[in-house]
Amino acid sequence: MSEVIIKAENISKVFRLGTIGSGALRQDLRLWWDRYVLKKKNTFFQMYNEESITDTHLWALKNVSFEINEGEVYGFIGRNGAGKSTLLKILSRIIKPTKGTIHGRGKISSLLEVGTGFHLDLSGRENIYISGYMLGMKKQEINSKLDEIIEFSGIEKFIETPVKRYSSGMYVRLAFAVAAHLEPDILIVDEVLAVGDIEFQKKCLGKMKDVSREKGRTIIFVSHNMQAISSLCQKSIWLQKGSVIANGDTQTVVNSYLSAYQHKVLKQEWEIGNAPGNENIKVLSVKLIPEFEDASDVIDIRTPLTVSFRFQNSSDLKMVVSIQLFSVSEECIFDIATKPSSFETGIIEGELMIPGNFLNDGAYYLSIDFMNESYESLFYFSECLHFEVEDYRENTKYFGKWMGSVRPHFPLTLKQCGKEFLKV
Amino acid sequence: MPEKINWEWEIKPQTSWFGTNFRELYAYKDLLFRLVRKEFLLRYQQTILGPLWVLIQPVLTVFVFVVVFNRVIKVPIPDIPPPLFYLSGITLWTLFSDLFSGTSSTFSANVEVFNKVYFPRLIAPLSVTFLHCFRFLIQLSLLMIVLLFYYFTGKIEVDFLRMFWMIPAVIICIGFGLGGGLIFSILTAKYRDLANVLGMIISMLMFICPIFYSMVTVTSSVHWLAYINPLTPLFELFRYAVFGIGKFTGMQILYSCLCMFLMLGYGILLFNKKGDQLIDVL
Question: What is the CA radius of gyration of chain B?
């Protein structure tokens, strides 16, 4: 049984929102005035204790506890804004938690970005040293691994060139080469693999796997890429809005995560009394209407879809409505907006046609943003529809996952231009 | 079974005033010197004259001072060749002002790195300190060359043993520059407005330091302003070390020393305590 290497207890983090910086001096002066001149209690900290956090404060993490054993590869998953990055920053000692403690053993290195500490005007060699030291390497360590690092990056020829002259691919290679040669007890990796070409990503994933397997190193890995999480991590934590939803075996966690976001919601309707919205907008219904050719009831990539929605408009401003479609991995596929146009108050109906043979197979969700003329949001109806598009193929013998977010039928043709061979 | 595990580190909400300990700083010494090297390379690698700029700056300033303060408005100075007199003041002032303004931008210059990786934050201002000390040594050698030139042409007497008085003057000066810079690095990061004030403070400070005048010859009714400035005795001590003319008392040096320790101590504590919280906001 391996030992616990990190133990986090009730980690919470509060951020102050709003116009930090510009108002800070005034705010602080007022605080000081209240405290020392008017002898009031510190209102800011009082709020913490009562846990009545208002609009100006955000709980990025709420009582997060977990234990990580030595040699485990742990994945953190969750939507954007779930608190993953905040948690990583706390673990890497960049920011302090508002509450709670973390105990741990061994040296931590964190890769929260590609090329930590890189400076564009310096040569590759110089940057290897700076980045290496910042990530916690020792002098002998870098000296002895320098050749290896340069070889791994595959840019031997350009090692004395300032990195600003590198292509972005070369830059990433060099940066990851440094990172890959770190030898901490605990390695923290945030989505670094999202960049770089596929070949290199594979190389990096492979390197990470080797490191954890052979050297028994603990790795904490954050990614949106469920594929990568599943293949790398034994255990995972699913964070949502700052709290742990699930913690345990990766397959179980990933499955429950995916199914939570893959439930289908094709139709939602409300009475005016409980309609979602605010004083400006009240949404009465949102529907996804597939246009089936035959009786089959599955949406596949050929099915034309219609998004239709009704809402009550209580302001006579000019307005813009935009529909945003996201894939389950939170990539925005499109964001289509109406022209600014004025309406009388009352019921308004909207419709968007998504043609068949446009979306790739996969799970999608859809959000509607109601905005005023200057594109300020009046009401953002997030994730009001969820649906899945099934695969459909003909005339192909390829059965792997079809790449891309969309799969339109743009004409791509080949034609024979001649029958002779060109002479060598 | 509550087994006891030997934790090696702990992350908790509060930061102690002492923050990083010396051992941790020492562990990052390689980073420190790389950062010094980086700054030096960045400043001079793509310039034609390269590191020569370290010397051109004081030479040009001396030239301006000779023209303005000696020829045009005729500020009285002791019986020392004016270029040597001005150069001595400028050399020490450059050390202080560069250090002060350099370390005070610690947060604005390093936000991106501070946001992505942990290392003892004090490393950043320390690397600036080392850089300017290095530049000071180069400029000091220029001062020595000028001094020797006047020595060999018989214009001035030089006592080489007396030169060692330079060391306390320089060290206290570094303490002031770093201490003030640390305090201002927190203030300017928190309240952006103060960044604009900083330049003004430095240029006003210059006038109450005996750089283009000497306490020996000053005859103004407001010279108490220069006396309450704890930097003043340092310039006088420095000049005394270089060519034996300076007006200061032991008490003044002690006052200066005390102010320096207070400022540096407060600077380091404030930097450690507030630095962590600032990252949230930046």
Answer: 21
